[in-house]
Specification:
Shape: globular
Strand content: 5-15%
Radius of gyration: 29 Å
Oligomer: single chain
Structural class: alpha/beta
Distance between the termini: 102 Å
Amino acid sequence: MSTHTAHDDTTETPTPPYFAVFGLDFVGLVVALFFFAWSLSPSLIAREWYFQGFVSGITSIIGYGIGVLLAFPARRWIAPHLLWWRRRHTARIIAQVLVAIAAVLTLVGSLLVAADWQNEVRALMGIEETTGFAYLRTGLVSVAIFLTILFISRGVHWVGRRFAGFLATRLRVPVAAAGVLAPVILVVAAIVFVDEVLLASSSTAARIVFSDDNNSTDPGVTQPQEPERSGSSASTSSWDSLGRQGRTFTDGGMRADELTELNGAPALEPVRVYAGLEADGTTEDQVQLVLDELDRTKAWDREILVVSGTTGTGWVNPVAADSIEMIYNGNSAIAAIQYSFLPSWISFLVDGSAAKAAGHELVNGVHERWLQLPEDQRPKLVVYGESLGSQSAEAAFSDLTDLRNDIDGALFVGPPNSNQLWRSIVDHRDADSPEVLPVYKGGTEVRFASDLQSLESQRGPWIDPRVLYLQHASDPVVWWGPGLLFERPAWLAEAPGKDRAPSMRWYPIVTFWQVAADIMVGTSPPVGHGHNYEDLIPYGWAAVTAPEGWTFADTQRVAEAVANLHDES
């Protein structure tokens, strides 16, 4: 009599711990595909196909890592206790295939409309349209980026396993403890290496990489001969100590004879004082050098004195400097110091405290000396800052009341989302006003503008001292922040601003990376969009601190002159 063993569908079939495709974790791959599709959606800045491939490749690998992390605890601790999951192998495969099909359809659909999405952004900014074929190449770049990072990460994982083995066999660390200690030690070592060697401005590596640029001089820039400028032979702030941006600033702009011709009235030679990072001493010493230069040039006798915050490299926007000098026909002085020579995006990460400290010391140092003058002999004292420079200038004030009590006006351009004063004002805006263009206390103390129309259309009293923020709906510097990771911000929940695509949506984690990537190309759009404010700055200055008798036609004349000056350069 033969023995027969009944077989039914409850028999457990050996299966791998997870379903893999070409050696890739299934859940990780699905999440990566969704992240890739989301990354193709429009953000703030139009992207070329190769840059989109870079952005999507990194976004995809982030999604892959998240998928693997999310799936691990489910496979390890939940799935083994689900009897139907363990025994219904066919059902599991069908479910995985259906999810994969949905992800692929999403991917294909996104690729098909990616060019249209980008053209929507391009149309808002007046940029030539791209083609669908160009965006088909995006996938190839993304795959290359994805596989490269995956290869590196698996190499790091291999190193971690080898290091754990070393701890267990050589140092007699228990295996379980070695498995935990090895990745922790490697991560800490990587963080220390990046923070102390690659990024920190005080590190030797950073100085080697960026000091050569700081020591260079832009083509066409020469040592000024006018004693009213730092770096001249009459100056105690030497030409060699100014740094590249300081030399460009002190040599820039119109001279008195050119201003006379422009305005049809005798002009003064504008005062520009600057202390570079290469000057010996501390930030306090730099501020003292600026004060000595203001004394030497008799800047306190001018009609207006501008204290300017600088960006990471020490840059002062020449359009801002030239505009105020044209408006005041040279009867002006501008003071600035350099706190770093790193690019702004690195300074933002590692030198934020240096920017704030420099702004605080400079503004307060100038303000204290200004207060010593007889009240009827003081120049107008205003502050200016663009991008990280606005954060530097803002740092001198605890709040808006403090700012308006101490100075005669302020113009802040493209402020980073982390600016504390800006953030406080925006958070306390009038209830019916949008975040993208807030109204604060009816516009009586501080105003916001994105273009000439929004600036000129605001009516009602604007009490001196005036404070003005210029910000575009498409400026990633203004809108990028850690809050984008897991929460939709107000500016994406409300109606879009003038040059933000209506089809832009918020996706967790993905939008954070999209807007972060937009910062890298924030100045690539035409003037009037992204992080470019050159067309609006002359009008901003006139709105904040125009001389008596100044007219709108005068501002138009200056704006045209500034544009022509910088078109030629």
